């Protein structure tokens, strides 16, 4: 299966291209973005290595992670990314990052909504999950707005940047999703 090209009124979700990597590395290097991510410093070389490690020809293969670029439809400028983990043939895990200049502009809401429509309608996925730091209120509020249910609060389950941290696990079933 090929990675999708998904459109909203203002956005396009598509496979990453080499031209996206400089902006990708730039916003991932910002402290406000890295705060809730596994990295502290993110370089252009990190972006290249991630890009080269993804084989879009195997898109949809269980056990693999893929990144989709979130771009502005008018300019094709990268404004964020959507991470997709095909847990198995029936379940996905997602994660999302938006460049600071575009946060608060409904980019993540539009992108994740469009992807959920695709996952549930076209891929016939049964369940989508997302795991977020319990302090990342912007992330978990977005998941709740999309209809995700908090299924777990993991207490001090992850050693994160030198301290034990809590995480929330959210899930949404196809049968619970309101298609738009």
TrEMBL record:
Statement: the UniProt record of this protein carries the keyword Transferase: yes
UniProt cross-references to PROSITE patterns, sorted A to Z: GNAT
| Ranges for domain N-acetyltransferase | 11-175
Q: Which GO terms describe its molecular function?
A: acyltransferase activity, transferring groups other than amino-acyl groups
Among Pfam families, the record links this protein to: Acetyltransf_3
Gene3D superfamilies xrefs: 3.40.630.30
Does the keyword field hold Transferase? yes
UniProt keywords, alphabetically: Transferase
Q: What is this protein called?
A: Ribosomal-protein-serine acetyltransferase
Organism field: Pseudoalteromonas tunicata D2
Its taxonomic placement starts with:
Bacteria, Pseudomonadati, Pseudomonadota, Gammaproteobacteria, Alteromonadales
């Amino acid at each position: 299966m090929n990675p999708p090209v998904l459109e909203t009124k203002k956005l396009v979700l598509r496979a990453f291209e080499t031209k996206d990597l400089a902006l990708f590395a730039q916003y991932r290097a910002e402290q406000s973005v890295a705060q809730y991510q596994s990295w502290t410093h993110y370089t252009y070389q990190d972006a290249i290595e991630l890009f080269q490690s993804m084989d879009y020809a195997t898109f949809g293969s269980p056990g693999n992670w893929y990144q989709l670029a979130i771009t502005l439809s008018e300019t094709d400028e990268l404004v964020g990314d959507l991470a997709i983990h095909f847990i198995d043939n029936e379940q996905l895990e997602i994660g999302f990052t938006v460049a600071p200049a575009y946060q608060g502009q409904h980019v993540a809401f539009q992108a994740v909504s469009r992807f959920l429509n695709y996952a549930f309608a076209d891929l016939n996925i049964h369940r989508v999950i997302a795991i977020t730091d319990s302090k990342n209120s912007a992330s978990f509020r977005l998941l709740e707005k999309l209809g995700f249910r908090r299924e777990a609060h993991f207490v001090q389950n992850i050693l994160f940047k030198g301290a034990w941290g809590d995480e929330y696990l959210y899930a949404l079933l196809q049968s619970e999703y309101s298609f738009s």
